[in-house]
Design brief:
The complex is a heterotrimer of chains A (319), B (524) and C (401).
Chain A lengths: L1 H11 L34 H22 L1 E5 L12 E4 L6 H8 L2 H4 L2 E6 H4 L3 H11 L1 E4 L10 H7 L3 E4 L17 H9 L3 E7 L1 H4 L13 E6 L11 H21 L1 H10 L28 H8 L15
Helix pairs in contact in A: 2-3, 8-10, 10-11
Chain B lengths: L5 E4 L7 E4 L4 E4 L6 E4 L10 H10 L7 H4 L5 E7 L13 H16 L3 E7 L8 H8 L1 H7 L4 E3 L8 E6 L5 E5 H4 L3 E8 L8 H6 L3 H4 L5 H5 L11 H16 L2 E8 L20 H16 L2 H9 L7 E7 L1 H16 E4 L3 E7 L14 H12 L3 E3 L3 E10 L12 H9 L6 H14 L1 H9 L7 H8 L1 H6 L2 E5 L3 H6 L3 E3 L2 H12 L5 E4 L6 E4 L1
Parallel strand pairs in B: 4-19, 5-6, 5-10, 6-7, 10-11, 13-20, 14-16, 14-19, 15-20, 16-17, 17-18
Antiparallel strand pairs in B: 1-4, 2-3, 8-9, 11-12
Chain C lengths: L1 E6 L3 H12 L1 H5 L1 H8 L2 E6 L9 E10 L2 H7 L21 E5 L11 E4 L5 H4 L5 H4 L34 E4 L3 E3 L6 H4 L2 H12 L9 E4 L3 H13 L5 E4 L3 H9 L4 E3 L4 H9 L2 E3 L7 E3 L2 E6 L4 H10 E9 L10 H5 L3 E4 L13 H11 L6 E5 L4 H9 L8 E4 L3
Parallel strand pairs in C: 8-9, 8-13, 9-10, 13-14, 14-15, 16-17
Antiparallel strand pairs in C: 1-2, 3-4, 3-6, 3-17, 4-5, 5-7, 11-12
Helix pairs in contact in C: 1-3, 3-15, 8-9, 8-14
């Protein structure tokens, strides 16, 4: 046994606890393009794993999420028209987002839903990767540009899976919106599937980056699902991307402006739609800025954590 | 596309590196600043091998297409490399089978009736019927064995033809059937730069009378290295002989080259760079190593010997030997050449379980020496990896085991080493006695024994290294065996370096040749 | 009184020792067996009386322990020899001693070695044809005459033996030893005479290749005799232990062969063909001209038979024990020749003993006797003798007085 221990010690030498060695300096120039090792996810899309997942989602995930927050879900009726795979795109500011969306979508969709998860975050660690994959049917998404020709997302759509993607690429730091990446729009264009915009409000306030559990007191969160959008024949991918972003911004603004004013603002083009990685607050196209300076970080957070209006009848008109 | 070979400088972040040691392997921590010569990564094999062979036969270099050389009534002799190539034996179908089948199809179409297939085993042991079948395939075997598919017999006076002497006075005596054919088709595998070319016919089909002109201490000491044909006296002699043979009988050669894929997928870690090992590689290292140590020695040898290499074929070139071989060499170098700046004081080699002469057999101490000081030491071009007067450290347990059927003369040669290990002394005093010993000749011809003189050739392979090196140390080597061979044994690398200190000082420059897979160091 | 080590009739001990030594473990424990189970006892006896004036009492100075003694004591010797001994007797036939009585031409107190064969001349009977021819080792009257039966001094109840303080010897048995020859070498004269006798048993052609099996006293002295008395070519010696090998080389052996790979090694030097039956050891077609079997072990004789060329000769020098496959003797038409003790020859100075004394004076035999035991420590002595090769000793001797 001591032989084995010595052998293990030798094997571990120069490696971290995950068994990875750093590339010797002289070998740097021959470093492999870092495509890591794909964590296998196909197993999670088997029928057996699907049953386990549905049970977990319905029996554990949703009850826990719904007990810790007070979700308000709007627009589920738009999903009736969704037959076959669709790309769900949502803004992203919290780990609460995925459980909320999964909990808000009807079972017939969540049974065939795969969630894009950051390869470098969720698929970095095998335990986390396995848990994420089983619970959400996650698959790795490379957020810093495409690394190779083949795309797992496209294959999944071909196999009839709907995808939930966060085109912002990452949770925002301040709860505002940032620009969408092209991937989701590209996928819609390539596969001819609809995109379903979803906006989440209050999740930043409930459980921002760095928190591991929603803040106590069952904070209210809102999930607004919009109408499915199809890319138009005369529309380019970047244009569709912008339209998607505007749709999410509109849903986002609905909490503040009410449904109709939000629609109006969108039509007026008075909503701020993010185009770059700089975050914007959709409802304040001209949020006061001093001399072109960046808005101070605290003010952004302040704005993003403003408690939503008390739960009540859906605001159609606002005064 | 694989990455090129390179030289690693061992720094503090370098994980322990893999070393072969006979029927096993280990991880070893090399001193900081040591250099490690890695081979280029394996090149992709040809996908449409059938097509590539067909194309090569139809568009040969320096020759008419093969179909045009074939005509009814001719005597056609197909000669192929024997069991010693490639290492480990490649997964079936062997590339020789695939080439021979196409050649035979063309011969059948041309109406050739008199076809003979001969294994170019020279003074190596005969191949068993099973080994022949594995090499040429079931179809060929059934059609030709045993009358027209056979081993070359270098001691059959009736089947040898003396073709004359070269301008240097070297006798050229080869297989009579081949010499008196209308065409020799030679099917080759070039695993290292020393194989193929002029060597194929002039060595593979030769007799002792012919071989002794280049397989001797003098020639080998002037072959630097024998893996660099332009600088190898041995290959110059081959060339002269091949010229003479070419004047008697036309030779159409088909040379194939392999990639660097000697181990099956389960042992992928053996060919990966250690810092790129993932958890799977590490787990399989541990599992394979532990189970390898646990199984009884005999079973272990059986398992290793059953290894089949998933080699891919990187090139097929056909035509006149002198036109084909440069292209073959280029292909070999593309796969194996790594540039190294400067020589080292100490060279380290991990010796694997197999060499050309122990396929389905036992690697005895003399073969270990020839693998180490012969083959591995000579894996260089330009200058030796280690400087004149330096030290070579080998990893091999070197048990005093001999295969009683395959290596009878080795058993006796080993006894001679108690008297002297000097190659010249052995050559002058005993070579003739062993070469003409009737018992060895009898066993070579009728059993499966290497020729009586073969252990001498093995010893000569190391002659250049013995002259060049000041000390030779075997890490983990059996003490009495190593001593018998005139070397020293050390229990660990640290001990070995301690032993080497007298020769190279306490802070030597160390180079480790990370092979297999095969790498040829281009030392500048 | 005479302190003697006496071999007595004890069927129980004889068969017990024989049974144990027949087993594998027993054969390894020969020393313990010889020391503890031998039918041997240390007794005080009255001094022997002289049978006639041609006899003398002898005071043994050194008396060797011979391989045949050990075989006898461990019950491994053949019952064939039973009628040729008379109980109880005192072993010891390799003796250097001093005479205690005046003899014609040999003053009292002379240093002598003893030719132990109790032949016609000693027994006082008319000479048998063998003795007339000088082939005294072949004497037919070994059981008759005035003396009790006994093929040699050391096996006869009447003469005593070397393992005592007093023994008797007939004048014809005595060979004076030059003062220059030390006791430690003189005690080797008897075995050397036997070796000379063995070498003289067959004509040995110049250049003949010879295998000597065993490198104990007999084997080494055979090498010496071969080199000094014949023009033999290569002499290969099977030696188990390093010190034996060194001595064999010193005496002129060409090559030392390991007992494991004998046939193989001989094949190499003769270029013979080695054939290997499916069962049993391999043998040579072609091979050595002559083999001297100097161990007495069956395996030694077997090796000899497998290593000889057709028509070759085996000389059995050691007292044989155990059965051997004689197929090679038949198929290869070999000669199997026995060599027992020594002979006086038909010329005055041509006997094996005078030759041995002459040879002993010039040969490098120092250090062959490195341990002497008093009779009281006979158990230790026999232990030592049984393991002599392993313990780096060639000859173990008693120093009785």
């Amino acid at each position: 046994m001591s032989g084995l221990r010595a052998e293990l010690r030798l094997l571990r030498h120069g490696r971290d606890w995950r068994g990875r060695a750093r590339v010797p300096r002289s070998a740097q120039q021959w470093k492999l393009p870092d495509n890591g090792d794909d964590f296998p996810t196909a197993w999670a899309r088997t029928a057996a794993a699907g049953m386990v997942r549905t049970a977990l989602q319905q029996g554990v995930l949703k009850p826990v999420t719904w007990s810790q927050t007070r979700p308000v879900v709007h627009g589920q009726e738009y999903l009736d028209s969704v037959r076959g795979p669709a790309i769900f795109v949502a803004n992203h500011s919290s780990h609460l987002d995925t459980p909320l969306i999964v909990g808000s979508l009807p079972l017939r969709i969540t049974k065939k839903l795969a969630v894009g998860a950051a390869a470098d975050y969720f698929f970095d660690l095998h335990v986390l990767a396995a848990a994420t994959t089983l619970m959400f049917n996650a698959f790795p998404v490379e957020r810093r540009g495409s690394r190779r020709g083949r795309s797992l997302a496209a294959e999944l759509v071909d196999d009839g899976w709907s995808l939930l993607l966060y085109p912002e690429g990452s949770r925002t730091v301040d709860g505002w919106l940032t620009g969408f990446k092209l991937g989701a729009a590209q996928l819609c264009a390539m596969k001819g599937v609809p995109a379903v915009p979803i906006a989440l409000r209050g999740t930043f306030a409930a459980m921002p980056r760095g928190r591991r559990w929603p803040r106590p007191g069952r904070p209210q969160v809102t999930v607004r699902i919009g109408r499915p959008l199809h890319i138009r024949t005369d529309e380019s991918v970047p244009e569709f991307r912008t339209r998607l972003a505007r749709a999410v911004a509109t849903l986002w603004a609905e909490d503040d402006l009410g449904w109709y004013r939000a629609l109006r603002a969108a039509a007026d083009d008075s909503l701020a739609v993010p185009t770059t990685s700089r975050s914007v607050l959709p409802t304040r196209a001209a949020y006061p800025r001093v001399g072109g300076q960046e808005i101070a970080a605290w003010r952004r957070v302040w704005e993003a954590t403003r408690p939503p209006a008390e739960d009540g009848p859906r605001q159609v008109w606002t005064d | 596309m694989g990455r090129p070979g390179f030289v690693l400088d061992v720094d503090e972040r370098t994980p322990p590196l893999l070393m072969h040691e006979g029927e096993g392997f280990r991880l070893e921590r090399l001193p900081l600043g040591s250099r490690v010569i890695y081979p280029p990564e394996s090149l992709p094999g040809i996908v449409d091998l059938e097509g590539a062979i067909r194309h090569a036969l139809a568009h040969p270099h320096g020759s008419d297409p093969l179909p045009e050389l074939l005509r009814p009534g001719m005597r056609l002799t197909i000669v192929f490399d024997d069991l010693s190539l490639p290492l480990p034996p490649m997964r079936t179908p062997d590339v020789r089978q695939r080439v021979i089948e196409q050649v035979l199809e063309m011969a059948a179409a041309a109406g050739v009736d008199d076809v003979e297939l001969i294994a170019a085993n020279s003074l190596h042991r005969r191949m068993t019927p099973a080994e022949l079948q594995r090499t040429v395939g079931e179809r060929v075997f059934r059609a030709f064995h045993p009358d027209h598919l056979r081993n070359h017999d270098a001691e059959d006076p009736d089947d040898l033809a003396h073709l004359g002497t070269t301008p240097h006075g070297e006798d050229v005596e080869i297989n009579r059937r081949a010499a008196e054919s209308d065409l020799i088709v030679y099917v080759n595998i070039t695993l290292t730069a020393m194989n193929g070319g002029s060597k194929s016919v002039s060595v593979g089909l030769a007799s002792y009378a012919s071989l002794r002109h280049h397989h001797n201490v003098h020639t080998l000491r002037h072959s630097r290295s024998f893996n660099d044909p332009p600088n190898s006296a041995m290959h110059h002699s081959y060339d002269r002989m091949a010229d003479l043979i070419g004047g008697h009988v036309p030779v159409f050669t088909i040379e194939t080259t392999l990639n660097n894929e000697p181990f099956p997928a389960a042992m992928r870690f053996l060919t990966r760079r250690e810092w790129e090992w993932n958890l799977t590689d590490q787990a399989s290292y541990l599992a394979v190593k532990r189970s390898n140590e646990l199984v009884p020695a005999k079973l272990r040898r059986r398992i290793w010997q059953a290894t089949e290499a998933p080699y891919g074929v990187t090139g097929v070139h056909a035509g006149a030997p002198s036109k084909v071989h440069p292209q073959t060499l280029a292909a070999v170098q593309r796969q194996q050449l790594t540039e190294v700046q400067g020589q080292a004081d100490v060279a380290i080699f991990g010796l694997p379980y197999i060499c050309p002469y122990n396929v389905n057999s036992i690697m005895n101490p003399i073969l270990v020496m020839s693998l180490g000081l012969g083959y591995f030491f000579n894996l260089y071009r330009g200058k030796p990896i280690v400087r004149q007067g330096g030290v070579a450290i080998f990893y091999h347990p070197m048990p005093p085991d001999f295969h009683p059927v395959h290596h009878p003369s080795y058993i006796d040669f080993y006894e001679l080493l108690a008297e002297t290990t000097d190659p010249v002394m052995l050559e002058t005093k005993y070579e003739k006695q062993f070469a003409t010993d009737p018992w060895y000749i009898h066993l070579y011809r009728t059993s499966y024994a290497y020729h009586g003189v073969h252990p001498f050739y093995m010893w000569y392979w190391g002659a250049h290294a013995m002259q060049h090196l000041d000390d030779v140390i075997f890490v983990g080597g059996d003490r009495s065996t190593t001593a018998r061979l005139g070397f020293r044994a050390a229990s660990s690398l640290a001990d070995a370096l301690e032993l080497a200190r007298d020769t190279v000082g306490s802070n030597p420059q160390i180079s480790y040749l990370h092979a297999p897979p095969m790498v040829l160091a281009d030392v500048r | 009184m005479n302190l003697t080590l006496q071999y007595h009739r004890s069927a129980g001990r004889y068969f017990a020792a024989r049974a144990v030594s027949g087993t594998r473990a027993g054969s390894r424990l020969a020393g313990a067996l010889a020391g503890n189970m031998a039918p041997l006892r240390l007794v005080e006896q009255p001094d022997p009386d002289l049978p006639s004036e041609s006899w003398s009492r002898i005071e043994p100075v050194l008396s060797g322990i011979c391989g045949s003694d050990l075989s006898l004591l461990t019950g491994r010797s053949s019952p064939y020899l039973g009628p040729l001994t008379s109980m109880p007797f005192v072993p010891g036939h390799e003796v250097i001693g001093r005479t205690l009585d005046e003899l014609p031409g040999l003053p009292r107190g002379s240093r002598v070695v003893i030719d132990p064969v109790l032949r016609c001349a000693v027994r006082g009977v008319p000479a048998c044809p063998a003795c007339i021819a000088g082939q005294t080792s072949r004497c037919d009257h070994i059981t008759t005459g005035k003396l009790s039966a006994g093929l040699q001094t050391g096996f006869c109840a009447d003469t005593g033996g070397g393992w005592s303080r007093r023994m008797l010897a007939h004048a014809s048995q005595l060979h004076p030893v030059p003062e220059a020859l030390p006791d430690e070498i003189a005690v080797l004269v008897e075995p050397l005479a036997c070796a000379i006798h063995a070498v003289r048993r067959v004509p040995i052609n110049p250049g003949a290749s010879v295998l000597v099996i065993g490198a104990g006293t007999v084997g080494l002295l055979t090498v010496l005799a071969l080199r000094k008395l014949t023009a033999a070519g290569e002499v290969h010696v099977i030696a188990k232990h390093r010190h034996q090998a060194d001595r064999a080389l010193e005496l002129g052996a060409t090559n030392i062969v390991d007992s494991d790979g004998t046939v193989r090694a001989l094949r190499r030097s003769t270029g013979a063909l080695l054939v290997e039956p499916e069962l049993g050891a391999g043998y040579l077609l072609g091979g050595m001209d002559l083999a001297f079997e100097c161990t007495g072990a069956a395996v030694g004789l077997d090796t000899a038979l497998r290593s000889l060329r057709a028509g070759g000769t085996v000389i059995a020098s050691g007292m044989p024990s155990g059965g051997v496959d004689l197929t090679p003797l038949w198929y290869r038409e070999l000669h199997l020749v026995g060599a027992y003790a020594s002979a006086v020859g038909d010329e005055p100075e041509g006997g094996d003993f005078p030759e041995a004394i002459a040879l002993a004076r010039s040969a490098p035999l120092n250090g062959y006797v490195d341990t002497r035991y008093p009779l009281e420590r006979w158990r230790d002595a026999l232990d030592h003798a049984a393991a002599a090769g392993r313990l780096g000793t060639i000859k173990v001797v008693f120093a009785p007085s």
